[in-house]
Amino acid sequence: MPLRLAKQRGSPNYYLRGTVRGRSIYESTGTDSQEIAEALRVKREAELLEESVYGARAVKTFAQAAEAYLKSGGSPRFLGSYDEAARKWTGLIGHFGTTRLREIGQGELDAAAEKLHPKASPETRNRQCYTPFIAVWNHAAASGWAEERTWRRPRKPKGTALRAKASRAGTTPVSYERAAAFVLAMTPAPAMVMTTLFYTGLRPIELFALEADDVRPDDRWIVVTSSKTGEPRGVPMHDLLVPMFRALKARGGHLFRSARGTPYPLTEEGGGQLSRAIDGARTRCGIRDISPYTARHTVSTQLVIAGVHPYIKDQILGHAVDSMSRRYTAVPQAPLIEAINLLPVVPAWRDAWWLADPVKYARVRTLSEPRTVDTRRRAGVKSV
User: Sheet containing 4-7: which strands, arranged edge to edge?
Assistant: First the structure.
């Protein structure tokens, strides 16, 4: 039967109910206006008929693709927000809205970036427009709603004299000796996070989302179920991390937790969860050019220095997530594992006391190994 308007107890809004070409529909119109709801009913019924004839690629819109991407755990950053007063979306969702995916090409994406960020640098446009758009598109392509496509991103004009900007912490790589000095000035819980970042190249938000089932220490492999690109990917595990990951996996649940035993919140400002620990380490050791994202730049640079092929490096960092790599996300890949183990290991970092028992020491809030009552007794020291 065709779609009809219906009311649901406890809700002022109208709902669409019925069956179109064998597909049962029961969904809210999001409005209590019968006139608007009726217009939506007619439009939705036409979409369903067209989709049943020509397929999802013919009718899916950017708004629908963005909604599906967000429901799958994708990042909402820079996609836009809903303005309750104006009753409309802002950002990319507001710009493309009900535009069908098949009607969006490189020209439309470039025009969106120009309109949404008219005075922004190429780097800002890339980060705030192209990256979130491509993440939504890749998710839609994986669902069969759009064709897989390579999008051209903006580049800084060659030969243009640009005023140098003061670099901020996290934008340049550091040596592993300098990284070790910084991490060893942190308490155990954040130190374990930073150690993992420096030996995987993970983004902070990817690391904070890891669960026990996502890591396979015996295989030297990590599965990131939802990355910045909207696609899952496999990440090799450095040998240094294996004992720590094995212990944290046995504990179960969220892999990394604060000293209070609670999971780190999944916020879009990835790494901000460690701000107090970072500030404390900077004060103690005097090193001020390191932040969570420093680790990612350092891994990338060190892999280049070690002679790792650019494609392998991009696979490790999640820059090259193609149809083949998505297919083998859960399969440990020897070339990637071999490459990650080319990262140097600083002896003092390898011998950090908190790595001896990560689960036990994760709750400790001091820089030196605590002496428990038992160890004091074994040493012949009486309790006071």
Answer: 4-7, 14-20, 23-28
Instruction: Give the separation between CA 94 and CA 91, rounded to whole angstroms.
Output: 5
**pLDDT tens for each residue of 322-359:** 444 455 566 678 999 999 999 999 999 999 999 999 99
First to last CA, the chain: 82
Structure letter (DSSP) for residue 61: B
Q: Is 86 exposed, middle or buried (0-12, 13-18, 19+ CB in 10 A)?
A: exposed
Tokens 């994202």 sit on residue: 293
Residues 300/306, Cβ–Cβ less than 8 Å:
no
Residue 325 CB partners (closer than 8 Å, separation 6+): 233, 234, 315
- Stretch 48-73: mean pLDDT, rounded? 79
- Both tokens of residue 334? 């020897």
Pick the CATH number of 176-373 from 1.10.443.10, 3.55.50.30, 1.10.10.10, 1.25.40.10: 1.10.443.10
Q: What are phi and psi of 23, to 5 degrees?
A: -105, 120
The residue with tokens 């149809």 is 323
**pTM flag (> 0.70):** no
How far is 294 from 232, CA to CA, in rounded Å?
23
pLDDT single digits (tens) 83-98: 777 778 899 999 999 8
Instruction: Give residue for tokens 């709603």.
Output: 145
Q: State the Cα torsion 109-115-120-123 to the nearest 10°.
A: -10
| DSSP class per residue in 202-268 | --HHHHHT-BGGGEEGGGTEEEESS-TTSS-EEEE--GGGHHHHHHHHHH-SBS-B-TTSPBPP--S
The full DSSP string for 63-118 is: HHHHHHHHHTT---TTT--EETTTTEE-HHHHHHTT-BGGG--HHHHHHHHHHHST
CA atoms of 83 and 288, how far apart (whole Å): 39
Phi and psi angles of residue 289, each rounded to the nearest 5 degrees, phi first: -105, 20
231 closest CA partner among 339, 321, 113: 321
